[in-house]
Design brief:
It comes from Papaver atlanticum. The protein is mainly alpha-helical. It has helices spanning 3-22, 26-36, 51-67, 73-79. The chain has four helices and no strands.
Length: 80
Amino acid sequence: MSQTNWEADKMLDVYIYDYLVKRNLQASAKAFQAEGKVSSDPVAIDAPGGFLFEWWSVFWDIFIARTNEKHSEVAASYIE
């Protein structure tokens, strides 16, 4: 695995852990951290709901805009 892929995997693990903590899934977060040897250092993008949640919200809005007529105006600007 290349160095860049390893870093991407490591960062994904960090943000998964951050998401679990922010969702108050403490047992899952602790197990994930231990098994994946994930650092508990603060994340670079410290969104209130977690970076993954923020990313997912944007992705989902744009995805729905492409497949459904009920979508936000912001999402519509991405698909036009």
